[in-house]
Amino acid sequence: MAKTPEVGGQTPPKIEYPCDFPLKIVGTAAEDLVEVVCNILEVHAPGFDATAISWQDSKNGNYRSVRVVIIATSTEQLDALHRDLKATGRIHMVL
């Protein structure tokens, strides 16, 4: 039987799909960052509620955090979403 990989000495929690999955995406602040994020989200989580997106700039205005909830359907979906967000070169963290 395969062992569940451990992260930092702890077994990661099991996610039961499909589920509401909150994301916090931190990128370099720019007027079009939310639009860029939305375009990528639409590819990986079509039909997500774009009206429920919120964002906030950092204290110094260098970064913008974008918060959204998607319906996650698989680990592969989340991995592909993360990969495409990071591939923009503008996203620093996806939490």
Automatic annotation (TrEMBL):
Cellular component annotations (GO), alphabetically ordered: cytosol
Highest taxon listed in the record's lineage: Bacteria
Family under the similarity heading: Belongs to the UPF0250 family.
Protein name from the UniProt record: UPF0250 protein FQP86_01670
